[in-house]
Structures
1.
Amino acid sequence: MVEKIKIIFLGDIVGKSGRKAVKMLLPELNKKYKSDFIIANGENAAGGYGLTEKIAEELFSYGVDVITSGNHIWKREFYPYLQKTERVIRPANYGPGAPGKGWTIYTKNNIKIGIINLEGRIFMRPLENPFLVGKSLAEELKKETPFIIVDFHAEATSEKIGLGYFLDGLVSAVIGTHTHVQTSDARILANGTGYITDVGMCGALESVIGMKVDQALEMYISMVPRKLEVEKSGKLKLEGVFLELNSKGKAEVIESFRLISS
Ligand SMILES: [Fe+2]
Ligand SMILES: [Fe+2]
């Protein structure tokens, strides 16, 4: 039995800048943390919207073990890969027939880790109930491993905190993604679940959640919707959390980090 495991979880990787941030800054971070597993949210890794097979493989080559996602994963060209891979998951609370899987059990160095992806419903689409879907999946995966990480991809802070309390003691950590803005509330809940409302993002520092500032402002002022492009210049940031779990799967450490390139 393993004594403890160490995990790095990276927030939404946004486009080329996000991938560059992972390539440049992750090795330095991992020198400090020496993690056993690296999980990253990759829903915006391809041009700011979705993922491709090539980009998933690129992230694996930087040391990412499993990629979680969210509302931006639904690109038709990606479905065949999503169907066959065990290393990229999408939120579990979509309906029957949705491509891919909402959870995975990943084995590395004889250690099994369970990862569940859920999407919120407040200010988002009306999916299946993430609380109920998450609980029943966690109970299933618990039969296989005590180490279970939940990526809750959601907009409302209240819904995220609610899920943290709801799954406290059942899973090792509830990690929020989707807003791309890191919150300063990383802590261990009463029954041993590590929690943060949002881990933040990996990508351009001077941007509107990864996208070009001038384009976002044009959209906000004119109120006309437009497709935003990823900001590709300037400094980069790498945000996420580091977790240490004991042999029972309880969190003993949760620490948020933000690295900025020089
Ligand atoms: Fe995102
Ligand atoms: Fe999202």
Note: The first strand starts at residue 4 and ends at 10.
2.
Amino acid sequence: MDSTSAAETRPLHQGEVPVYMETGKAYPRAVKGTFRSLKWWATLLTLGWWHLAPFLRWDRGPGAPDQAILIDLPGRRAYFLFIEIWPQEVYYLTGILLIAAIALFLMSALAGRVWCGFLCWQTVYTDLFVWVERQVVGDRNQRIVFDAQKMSPAKLGRLALINLGWLIIAAACGIGFTLWFGDAFEMLGDILTGNASTAVYGTIAVIGGFCFLLAGYARERVCVYLCPYSRFQSAMFDEHSLIVTYEAWRGETRAPAGRDANFEGRGHCVDCRACVQACPTGIDIRNGNQLACIGCALCIDACDTVMDRFKLPRGLISYDSSFNIAARGSGAKPQYRPIRPRTLIYGGIMLLAATVMLARLASRPDVDVNVLHERSPLFVQMSDGSIRNGYVYKVLNMKAEPRTFGLTLAGLDGATMDVVGGESNVTRAELQVARDSVGTFRVYVSAPADKITGRSMPVTFELSGPSRTVRTDSLFAGPEK
Ligand code: SF4
Ligand code: SF4
């Protein structure tokens, strides 16, 4: 029985490419081999990182979160080891995303869809979900028979067991996601004891729900129809990119073979379809490189096992470049060229982005200021004739210690300040800002009327701290002269 026959839902016009083709369900057969082992290691690594990273600790001093990697949404802060990213520094996130995207391009240019086949969470979770099916029902043939059986209490029980296994994995996925956004130990305790907030349970339900549906029921359709990356990644390939390929020059002409077959004058492919049956997307790699091939390399393991059985050289299906396939077919010497213009460009962009980010990180200020001139009213004339303007003055203390700053004015003769709740009628005000926080001060600046020569005069706020002085220009409004 074969699961790969495609049934289109309506007849196509001549030359029309179907947007969606309903294909039979894939029942990937279990395989053993190098790439299968690599895939398990990749699963261990990706899921290990996903679930354990929030539990890593990093000492930032008293009062500060000690989670090594934390996205603190209520506090509007992100922490990565010794780096603390404030909302106005969101460009770091842009830099990280840029580097990640280019790394993906580089990976694709070098080794095809390695990301899709080994590291993407859709692949990782689908692999786990299929493993659950195997434990409950069995391998490919048993699953095909099981699906074809009429519903019965026994079948219902096994379906319930499969779905329960999927639900546990999906819930773990959702819980793992939420732990990046709060203290992992505390949050996990709250979740397990029913004391977490509705928002936390809601997030687990949404993320876990997507995991359940995408890995349990949508499977390879996500890669073929939903994922945008599968659509444009071929733009990153060239003739030297390694992709999973069938060496047709060696495999054809294919034909079934007995155990002691003579392969003189015929191809090495014995048409056993082991590669097709191992494929999680249900395709036949012998038909050439296809959009649905996620590069998982399980067909390589399947075919190598067959080649071993017939004492033929391994690698009828292998990671190879189209350049090498053509070279091998024509008897020329194959060669792999990882250093090429495209890989150099990708590597160069990554290096440049990383250098800019590191330089910016090394020179980032530990204090920032924001001044807002009050508009309503723009100014007030006091009983002694002086003109008064109001400002909201915000100081971002990015250090893990409380600090006292001195605030002075420049550019406005005779001006004095009143800090609401602080000093009055001073030319230098002291502002205290708690550690790691934004201090917001309402400051009134008064200047003698005879010094105000226009409706809008420049004024500069100078904030002196232990490490640097921050000058911020603003305007001082007065009556028309
Ligand atoms: S054709 Fe091979 S590499 Fe591609 S998805 Fe199928 S098993 Fe994986
Ligand atoms: S597993 Fe190898 S020998 Fe068997 S059909 Fe696929 S390519 Fe041919």
Note: DSSP finds 15 helices and 16 strands in the chain.
